[in-house]
Write a structure and sequence with these properties.
The protein is mostly helical. It is built from 15 helices and three strands. The longest helix is centred in the last third of the chain and has 34 residues. The N terminus is likely disordered.
């Protein structure tokens, strides 16, 4: 009896007693964090050796620090009652709009796109679209929960919920079209579940398809005008927006027709990813034995899934896919059990955006989608995106914790 009491007083038992929410989601986070440490360490060895004079463990320690901070964010976010997020949703949404505008015109430039702003004092950059995505789904969940009685009406129901989606997507698109498309698709899926009229959603999809078809047409026309060769985007002396449009066309053109490796890095990246996947086979080369990490650009972020398959094979890649799908299924379970509309929509919307981003990253790695630049949530090397992902998971677990408390039984 005394031995049992002693065990219950240990710090681990005390922490576990204060950790609520869906235990399966907690397990998924733990597994993805372990995978992240292994693959980031493997894929950054050469980079660390060059940048830090032989200290190949520097990025491992950095990733471990990000994971520790991320787990703390998840823990404290899941302790907050999710109704608090409803109260601050509009404020965060309104704050994200000027931040996106500032980023668009004055943000830190990288690869001819302005996606980041630099925070003073700590001198850290963060991607404002990550905050905007989180704010959008919090605000959208609030609107959907309040407008269920009029949601079928175009003027009083549909327009108020589609307007914030359009604003955020239009502000993200100039610097990061792929993220804007993913946010838009996820939002429409959430609106469909939120009982928005199917004809209104179909109209929105048709309108959104127009610029996409124009982009595809421009890629086809340019490829034909260049005599069947893929042209590298021109950047010298050109407006930032035009440079981005040229990059979009180039990526679609490369995806549709392929191209020579010396005409740009898009086809080079996909070719190196294909080589990594081919080398991995069924069971992989083993942990730390990747060869393409030395040739593949951004093997620790955009193309980390290709490194996973190379080292752990198709079995390892399937394992990662299953984790994300289990995460989604558990979030759907929270959605179905949550007694309040806001919490249900919030958990589902945030889980959709994480899983869809993960599937998009994997699709790029296996050359099903054009190169997009989106990371693999909780696996790619840490940054602001990693921390915002942890915050989103913490909010999902906050909903799960309150569902658990309301039912009086564990999930």
């Amino acid at each position: 009896m005394s031995h049992t009491a002693t065990i219950e007083k240990t710090p681990f038992a005390s922490l576990r007693s204060r950790t609520r929410g869906d235990k399966v989601i907690w397990t998924a986070v733990f597994l993805l964090a372990i995978v992240s440490l292994l693959v980031v360490y493997s894929s950054t060895g050469l980079l660390a050796y060059k940048m830090y004079k032989g200290n190949t463990e520097i990025y491992l320690f950095k990733q471990f620090a990000f994971i520790l901070v991320g787990v703390m964010i998840i823990y404290f976010a899941h302790q907050v009652n999710y109704t608090i997020y409803s109260r601050v949703a509009m404020i965060i949404f309104l704050v994200s709009i000027p931040l996106l505008l500032y980023t668009l015109f004055f943000g830190v430039k990288l690869n001819e796109g302005s996606r980041w702003i630099r925070l003073p004092i700590i001198n850290m950059t963060f991607q404002t679209s990550d905050l905007a995505k989180l704010a959008l789904f919090m605000y959208l969940s609030r609107l959907l929960s309040k407008k269920q009685d009029t949601i079928k009406d175009f003027r009083t129901g549909f327009l108020p919920v589609i307007t914030p989606v359009a604003i955020i997507c239009l502000l993200i698109a100039p610097a990061n079209l792929s993220t804007a498309l993913l946010v838009g698709a996820t939002s429409l899926l959430l609106l469909f579940i939120g009982r928005v009229s199917a004809k209104h959603l179909l109209l929105t999809i048709l309108v959104a398809a127009i610029p996409v078809m124009i982009l595809i047409g421009a890629a086809a026309i340019r490829h034909k005008s260049n005599g069947g060769t893929t042209e590298k985007p021109r950047t010298e002396g050109r407006n930032r927006l035009f440079v981005r449009v040229d990059t979009w066309i180039s990526r679609v053109e490369t995806f549709m027709y392929g191209g020579k490796e010396d005409n740009g890095d898009n086809n080079y990246q996909t070719n190196q990813a294909k080589i990594a996947i081919a080398k991995g086979g069924i069971f992989g080369l083993g942990p730390g034995n990747s060869q393409q990490r030395n040739f593949l650009p951004h093997p620790y972020s955009d193309f980390i899934f290709a490194i996973i398959i190379e080292e752990y094979g198709l079995i390892g890649g399937l394992f990662i896919v299953v984790i994300y799908l289990v995460f989604l299924l558990r979030s759907i379970r929270i959605f179905r059990r949550c007694p309040f509309a806001f919490g249900a929509f919030l958990a589902l919307g945030l889980s959709f955006t994480l899983v869809i981003q993960a599937l998009a990253n994997m699709a790029v790695n296996v050359n099903l989608f054009p190169v997009t630049g989106v990371t693999l949530p909780l696996v790619s090397m840490g940054g602001s995106s990693f921390l915002f992902t942890c915050l989103a998971i913490g909010i999902i677990l906050s909903v799960a914790r309150n569902v658990e408390q309301s039912e009086g039984s564990p999930t």
